[in-house]
Specification:
By secondary structure, the chain is α+β, with helices and mostly antiparallel strands. 20% of the residues lie in helices and 43% in strands. It has two helices and eight strands; from the N terminus they run βαββββαβββ. It has an eight-stranded mixed beta sheet with strand order 2-3-4-1-5-8-7-6, covered by helices on one side. The longest helix has 12 residues, at 15-26.
């Protein structure tokens, strides 16, 4: 099974300013998930902004989807990837982050 690009996540230092910017410039609508996260959809691909106090560099996180997180995590490791954030739960599912052999960080999520 292929793992399609399903979601793109950005960092933001101010969620309200970020929401206002993307709404005013591009017409995006947002759903708030607590004080540290907002999501957007119906703009070509779904995504979100996570609040960050850290300086932002390489702020986009490409999120893939796969139905079996444990199996795909093992495949990532077997093929030279490293796990940068272990599997964790969030509203709507679970995910983990990994770095590919070149150091790019991506995430994979599942509803289960």
């Amino acid at each position: 099974m292929k793992a399609p690009i399903d979601y793109i996540e950005f960092k933001a230092t101010d969620l309200e300013k970020t929401k206002t910017f993307y709404h005013e410039v591009f017409g995006w609508e947002f759903t708030d998930y607590g004080p540290n996260y907002v999501s957007f959809s119906e703009v070509g691909i779904a995504g979100g902004f996570e609040l960050s106090a850290e300086p932002i560099k390489n702020g986009a996180l490409v999120v893939l989807h796969h139905s079996d997180l444990k199996a795909i995590k093992e495949k990532v490791i077997q093929n030279g990837g490293t796990i940068s954030k272990e599997i964790f739960e969030f509203p709507g599912g679970k995910r983990f982050h990994f770095r590919d052999p070149s150091g790019n960080e991506l995430a994979i999520w599942s509803e289960k």
